[in-house]
Amino acid sequence: MIKRTIVTTEEHHMQRVKIAEIYHSMSSYDSKTITVAGWVRSIRDMKNFGFVTLNDGSCFKDLQVVMERESLHNYEEIAAQNVGAALIISGEVELTPDRAQPFELHAHTITVEGISEPDYPMQKKRASREFLRTQQHLRSRTNLFRAIFRVRSVAAFAIHSFFQERGFVYVHTPIITSSDAEGAGEMFKVTTFDLEHVPTKDGAVDYSQDFFSAPTSLTVSGQLEAENFAMSFGDVYTFGPTFRAENSNTRRHAAEFWMVEPEMAFCDLEGYMDVAEAMLKYVISYVMKTCPDEMAMFNSFVDKGLEERLQHVVSSDFARVSYTDAIDILKAAQKQGTTFKYPVEWGVDLQTEHERYLTEVHFKKPTFVCDYPAAIKAFYMRMNEDGKTVAAADCLVPGIGEIIGGSQREERLDKLTKRIHDLGMEPEQYKYYCDLRKYGTCHHAGFGLGFERLVMYLTGVDNIRDVLPHPRTVGNAEF
Amino acid sequence: MIKRTIVTTEEHHMQRVKIAEIYHSMSSYDSKTITVAGWVRSIRDMKNFGFVTLNDGSCFKDLQVVMERESLHNYEEIAAQNVGAALIISGEVELTPDRAQPFELHAHTITVEGISEPDYPMQKKRASREFLRTQQHLRSRTNLFRAIFRVRSVAAFAIHSFFQERGFVYVHTPIITSSDAEGAGEMFKVTTFDLEHVPTKDGAVDYSQDFFSAPTSLTVSGQLEAENFAMSFGDVYTFGPTFRAENSNTRRHAAEFWMVEPEMAFCDLEGYMDVAEAMLKYVISYVMKTCPDEMAMFNSFVDKGLEERLQHVVSSDFARVSYTDAIDILKAAQKQGTTFKYPVEWGVDLQTEHERYLTEVHFKKPTFVCDYPAAIKAFYMRMNEDGKTVAAADCLVPGIGEIIGGSQREERLDKLTKRIHDLGMEPEQYKYYCDLRKYGTCHHAGFGLGFERLVMYLTGVDNIRDVLPHPRTVGNAEF
User: Fold this and answer.
1) Which residue among B225, B472, B474 sits closest to A470, beta carbon to beta carbon?
2) Record: contact A235-B479, CB cut-off 8 A
3) How close A427 gets to chain B, by Cα (Å)?
4) Minimum-distance CB partner of B435 among A138, A164, A278
5) Is A193 on the interface with B (CB under 8 A)?
């Protein structure tokens, strides 16, 4: 066997200690000789001694390393390294309870694992987020993006934990689809055709020659497929990428984003709202507990009131109001002098300005608006007894607007087929969906959470491009 | 507010009890009156009384319900229900330690929530897996598929837990990509063009008019993007869908499948093998502990030796052998009379027959084969000191063959650019990847686990179409 490097993972002979581990079990490392490996955040050369600030990505905090010219044979080499260089450092831990950082590492040996060339784009000076979007392969080395993407990871795990603890089954619904989940939303086409020579037959594209022998697209939602599984497992959820080919260039829209879509059998609209509220509180609590350093950074540098606001959400009940009452509230606000750009009238869809008034000004906390007019909602939502509203509810949160949309699903076959017919949709496309109503149908409900919007809400970051590892938007699929 | 149904989730007023909960806390339900909701597995009418077997998807086991003609006003209606009907049942729990099932529910009231039409395709008789592939929206109601998809969900969560417990950061690498991760693998094209009228300019497709202003495809691997994040977080992993547009119709290949791709900084080949081995053992243990009923069913009806084999994997060290030694073992087997269809010669890629001989006959356990000839491996794998092999290792398991492929990544800029050049690849496509070698490069390694192969290994199911909720293969994108 060929000889390997000595620096390996923790699992391999424990030769390397991660910085997070030292912070976690500080006293057990007192006066211990250890090896760490990471990247230089800064180097200060004080002539006879110097400091290296090292980060290994295992936690937000850095490690302060002290080196002495007298005892370090390659002191000059190390002192000359640039920000971003990879170093392997062996030395002794000294607890320093009286100083700014709780411990230091006194270096015995420092090896340069990889230099950082002088044109390194991530210098110490503050770079704009716009510039960093052109450096997506390097931007997670900054404090801001390291914090964002760790919170993203921790929030994703919190979502899985929440549902798995409650017995929900995780379903990987398909990405490539031959159906159009909502009859809405522009979709990306998927093909193996040579685009210069698309085969035709009788003047139309000959899809029998395409990979799937049918026109296919990227999914806009896994809901309809998730319902298949809710009708056998009871409670299920999806968590995967979804796509919209909309030519919109806003801070809140991306062409590729991740969605969480739970579906629950024998559950009504109140039940969905209970689960959604519990889920948001769980995720917020989990992230605040797991990422205190990251959250403190957001609170200081991104969004001053963030931590207080999130704490408030966790400890208070969400507001619940009917669409009809919400319209009355908005009209009353108009009478009191509030002006809205868009009209407020029973039957209109709520605009972001209306949503934000309700959740930020009126209720001052997350708010479910329920029982919307059927005309402005999707075909699968359950018709209420009044014959004009559907059992839908959107969850609005301060600073973001809509973060969750959900509904009871129409479980009555006759009402569902009538609606499909009235809207001029293709019944054949919904054959399987209707089958669920023929064989053991039941009251059920579900919702969709835009995961990026949740990460924005958790971090205070206001552009979706900054919470996606490599965002895809109009004209942008680089990296 | 509009009145809702009374049956809601557990979180809502605790009005409904899931069957899993009764099995979990049996004695606390003794003589309690509760409400359950689920679907009929079978009904037996014994004239004066009858039995309903109910499943609500919360666990593999059913609930036995006893109903009496005398006390149930709609006994006839219930006795006439078909398999698959949805019922809501209130009654009293009676522990029955002396009978086949540990408790029964004595029904006070039974409400038909949704009938099952007589043409229900999931009748009690055993349907073939081929037939069930035509009923993908209903097949998870069978014992087999309910078990498969629960194990899939639990295994997915085990993977997240394993990595999160070890401080790995979960990265959502992009699905739509403008690069070709491996220079191998046929890719699906993604476009918003009208395929009947693809715009051209100077005789070629005018991609400046497409959504991303560039040709884009569905990713075949998130590895290269994951490396971006490994160079800031140290340890990261992806878990998402990947795609191959290969026209192959085998039991082991699908066009859309899920991959787990960890990347670890300051890690060598041994380190990767340690992590991969620990991960497999963790997931197997977790699934066996969490899904004992499902595993027992697979062991009885799908793959007789399954549980013993998995137990053996958990408790023994994986074999590790160099490619060169593996070739010698195969040659020795040939001398002893074993015949292989494909030639065995240093330099050839190992075929499934070779892999299975090594892991099933020779080592009789999971086996890592390492240090393959450079010529048969990808450009990013680290060249060994011998100048002809690379630090790659594949993990082979009995019954499946390759389940994991991984390597140390070439971290030396000069060697990487030479290899890109030698293979005639486009250097411009790998600019960002090479940047990682300019700014703080370090030894690092990673691997890819085909998640469906893992589920096949865990369940003994031998066709990938039966472990994907809605499989996509050549000619199939329905459901």
Assistant:
1) B225
2) no
3) 14
4) A138
5) yes
Q: Which of A2, A86, A205 lies at the smallest CB-CB distance from B441? A: A86
What is the number of CB-based contacts under 8 A between chain A and chain B?
416
pLDDT, position B183: 55
Is residue B118 helix, strand or coil?
A: coil
From the list A371, A470, A190, the residue with the least C-alpha distance to B211 is A190
On whether any CB of chain B is under 8 Å from the CB of A231, the answer is: yes
CB contact under 8 A, A229 and B153: no
Contact, B393 vs B419, CB < 8 A? no
User: What distance, in Å, lies between the first and last C-alpha atoms of chain A?
Assistant: 36
The token duo for A376 is 């402005």
ipTM over 0.85: yes
How do residues B82-125 score in pLDDT, each as one tens digit? 999 999 999 999 999 999 899 999 999 999 999 999 999 997 67
**Chain B touched by A111 (CB under 8 Å):** no
Q: What does the pLDDT read at residue A1?
A: 35
Cβ distance A385 to B196 less than 8 Å, yes or no, reads no
Tell me: pLDDT of B434 over 60. Answer: yes
Percent of chain A with pLDDT over 70: 96
The β-bridge relationship of strands B103-114 and B169-170 is unpaired
Kindly determine whether residue A371 and residue B2, on different chains, have CB atoms separated by under 8 Å.
yes
Quote the tokens at residue A340.
């809205």
Q: Does A43 touch chain B (CB under 8 A)?
A: no
A279-325 tens-digit pLDDT: 999 999 999 999 999 999 999 999 999 999 999 999 989 999 999 99
Q: What is the mean pLDDT of residues B50-54?
A: 98
Test mutation, B120, B132, B137, chain A, max A CBs within 10 A: B137
Which distant-in-sequence residues (6+ apart) come within 8 Å of B270 by Cβ?
Answer: A4, A8, A12
B124 neighbors B43 (Cβ within 8 angstroms): no
Nearest Cα of chain B lies from the Cα of A23 at a distance, in angstroms, of 13
Whether residue B439 and residue A205 make contact (CB cut-off 8 A), yes or no, is: no
For residue B6, what pLDDT is reported?
A: 47
Which pLDDT score is estimated for A156?
A: 98
Helix (H) or strand (E) holding B43: strand B33-45
Q: Which of A84, A104, A75, A79 minimizes the C-alpha distance to A92?
A: A104
Running DSSP on this structure, what letter comes out for residue B357? I
Residue B10: pLDDT over 80: no
Shortest CA distance from B61: residue in chain A: A233
pTM of the model: 0.96
The 3 state secondary structure assigned to chain A is CCCCCCCCCCCCCCCCCCHHHHHHCHHHHCCCEEEEEEEEEEEEECCCEEEEEEECCCCCCCEEEEEECCCCCCHHHHHCCCCCCEEEEEEEEEECCCCCCCEEEEEEEEEEEECECCCCCCCCCCCCHHHHHHHCCCHHHCHHHHHHHHHHHHHHHHHHHHHHHCCCEECCCCCEECCCCCCCCCCCEEECCCCCCCCEECCEECHHHCCCCCCEEECCCCHHHHHHHHHHHCEEEEEEEEECCCCCCCCCCCCEEEEEEEEEECCCHHHHHHHHHHHHHHHHHHHHHHCHHHHHHHHHHCCCCHHHHHHHHHHCCCEEEEHHHHHHHHHHHHHCCCCCCCCCCCCCCCCHHHHHHHHHHHCCCCEEEEEEEHHHCCCCECECCCCCEEEEEEEEECCCEEEEEEEEECCCHHHHHHHHHHCCCCHHHHHHHHHHHHECCCCEEEEEEEHHHHHHHHHCCCCHHHCCCCCCECCECCC
